[in-house]
């Protein structure tokens, strides 16, 4: 009898939650309320049967949380229930750094799989060749089928210096493959690179949107202006986004006061809100800079890994005719969410929480970003790495060979590498001596010279890109990340195209 009373109290609590929620988001009609109550009685009956008759004793809390997650699983993948531990972890994510791999992830609704939005620039994941849209089908050998985003994050994070192996399924590669990545403390500074491409064109790479982004942007832009910048390439490739208000602040640097940056729209016209620029001149005054950048000619680079706040910024600059957008269609992730702390799932001090989608973002021209992304004015495609290159990157041979090369040429290694006519032969010797396998070992045994000739030919055929990759790693070791990045961007086809477009309008 007591169990029935407890279950009834639970049912009434759930019904009370429905009433409280209706006061927040609008009244439920009588038919809807009646139907919900009937379904709650059904849920209560099943819960009672399980508690009384299931073959093993079960914890009601686990069952109820499972039911909640199952219910939310029928909605978009970003509407989730967070346990007190998960909610606490979400709040700590804004602290500035964390130990992990450097991957922004999501659950894609079309296939309900764990998917890479973008590797964060300069992190272990990027160095190991992880790409946007890679599917993570296992973490440390455990399948990710049905995993929620918070469990995935928890499994991939850990102490710096420890390894995590993720199994990747990549479009264009038939078989899944493992990538072992050593965790590091992930720096989430916003402006990672800023330098002059030519005497008049500056380059700025914004890798994510965080609280210090506007200040970092102005500092970098002022430095470029002092060096003679008259046009700007703003690189948002691989930028997974961040806070909405920061996206509006960054857009305000480049837009006059009052221009629409983005607006939101929920169900039945609810949650409509316009977000307007505060004006570049006002921001220049706020950060005590004499120059503002409302009229600086701009090109913005985006790709399939540009998401969320990146899409808001690119969409605003495109619709307001403020910049030319170049690259690939962006990711298409832009949802307005609210987080509702729920002490019922924990305590007053450490509550659980419901993260719920309440609206979509729209560009000033009325284009919904979610699921569609931003279509560039000039569309480009990345050249695909040959399979031999991908396999060498995944197994870290480009980095290992760079270190080997540096050990053998401790002075002027970069100059020697640039003129090395035996590079492909040396790389092949190194890879084969260190147990590199293009094919599975069992298959290689059936090939002439165990497949060695094929490997040598493939490395020779792809020498230019392999040499570039090794040079980048060599420069990183010798002169630092900034020098290595500058070298890489100088020969980037997209950056070259952006420079050409800027020169036409400057």
Descriptive tags:
506 residues, alpha+beta, 43% helix, Pdz3 Domain, 2-enoyl-CoA Hydratase, Chain A, domain 1, 4 domains, globular, five-stranded antiparallel sheet, single chain
Compact overview of the structure:
With 506 residues, the protein is of the alpha+beta class. It is built from 19 helices and 19 strands.
Describe this structure in words.
This protein folds into four domains: 2-58; 97-187, Roll (Pdz3 Domain); 191-335 and 359-379, 2-enoyl-CoA Hydratase, Chain A, domain 1, CATH 3.90.226.10; 387-505, no CATH class. The radius of gyration is 26 Å and the shape is globular. The termini are far apart. The model is unreliable at 1-24 (pLDDT under 50). 43% of the residues lie in helices and 20% in strands. The strands form five sheets. It has a six-stranded mixed beta sheet, with helices on both faces. By secondary structure, it is of the alpha+beta class.
- Mean pLDDT across residues: 87
CATH architect. name of the largest domain: Alpha-Beta Complex
Q: Report, as a whole number of angstroms, the end-to-end distance.
A: 81 Å
- Would you count the extended β strands for me? 19
Count of structural domains: 4
List low-pLDDT spans. Answer: 1-24
Strand order of the largest sheet: 10-11-12-15-16-19
Helix/strand/pairing class, anyone?
Answer: alpha+beta
**Principal-axis shape:** globular
User: How many helices?
Assistant: 19
The helical percent reads 40-55%
Q: Say which CATH homologous superfamily of the largest domain is assigned.
A: 2-enoyl-CoA Hydratase, Chain A, domain 1
Rg (C-alpha, Å): 26 Å
| CATH class identity of the largest domain | Alpha Beta
Strand % is: 15-25%
């Amino acid at each position: 009898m007591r169990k029935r009373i407890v279950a009834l109290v639970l049912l009434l609590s759930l019904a009370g939650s429905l009433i409280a929620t209706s006061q927040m988001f609008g009244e439920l009609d009588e038919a809807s309320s009646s139907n919900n109550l009937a379904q709650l009685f059904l849920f209560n009956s099943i819960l009672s049967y399980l508690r009384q008759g299931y073959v093993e004793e079960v914890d009601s809390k686990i069952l109820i949380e499972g039911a909640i997650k199952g219910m939310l699983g029928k909605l978009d993948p970003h509407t989730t229930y967070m346990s007190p531990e998960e909610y606490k972890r979400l709040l700590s994510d804004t602290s500035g750094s964390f130990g992990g791999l450097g991957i922004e992830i999501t659950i894609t609704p079309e296939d309900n799989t764990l998917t890479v939005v973008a590797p964060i620039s300069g992190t272990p994941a990027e160095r190991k060749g992880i790409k946007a849209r890679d599917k993570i089908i296992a973490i440390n050998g455990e399948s990710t089928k049905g995993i929620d985003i918070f469990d995935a994050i928890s499994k991939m994070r850990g102490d710096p210096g420890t390894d995590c192996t993720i199994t990747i399924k990549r479009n264009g590669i038939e078989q899944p493959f493992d990538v072992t990545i050593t965790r590091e403390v992930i720096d989430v500074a916003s402006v990672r690179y800023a330098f002059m491409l030519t005497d008049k064109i500056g380059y700025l790479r914004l890798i994510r949107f965080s609280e210090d982004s506007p200040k970092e942007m102005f500092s970098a832009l002022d430095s470029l202006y002092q060096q003679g910048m008259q046009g700007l390439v703003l690189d948002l490739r691989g930028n997974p986004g961040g806070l909405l208000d920061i996206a509006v602040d960054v857009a305000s640097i480049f837009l006059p006061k009052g221009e629409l940056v983005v607006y939101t729209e929920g169900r039945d016209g609810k949650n409509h809100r316009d977000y307007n620029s505060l004006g570049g001149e006002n921001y220049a005054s706020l950060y005590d800079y004499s120059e503002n950048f409302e009229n600086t000619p701009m090109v913005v680079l985006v790709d399939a890994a540009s998401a969320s706040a990146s899409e808001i910024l690119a969409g605003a600059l495109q619709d307001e005719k403020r910049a030319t957008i170049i690259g690939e269609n962006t990711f298409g992730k832009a949802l307005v969410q609210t987080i509702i702390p729920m002490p019922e799932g924990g305590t007053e001090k450490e509550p659980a929480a419901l993260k719920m989608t309440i609206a979509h973002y729209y560009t000033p021209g009325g284009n919904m970003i979610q699921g569609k992304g931003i279509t560039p004015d000039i569309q480009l495609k990345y050249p695909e790495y040959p399979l031999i290159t991908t396999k060498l990157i995944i197994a870290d041979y480009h980095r290992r060979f760079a270190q080997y090369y540096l050990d053998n040429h401790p002075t002027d290694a970069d100059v020697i590498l640039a003129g090395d006519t035996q590079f492909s032969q040396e790389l092949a010797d190194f890879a084969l001596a260190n147990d590199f396998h293009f094919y599975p070992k069992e298959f290689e045994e059936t090939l002439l010279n165990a497949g060695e000739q094929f490997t040598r030919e493939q490395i020779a055929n792809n020498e230019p890109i392999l040499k570039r990759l090794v040079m980048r790693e060599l420069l990183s070791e010798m002169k630092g990340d900034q020098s290595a990045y500058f070298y890489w961007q100088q020969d980037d086809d997209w950056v070259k195209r952006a420079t050409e477009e800027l020169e036409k309008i400057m």
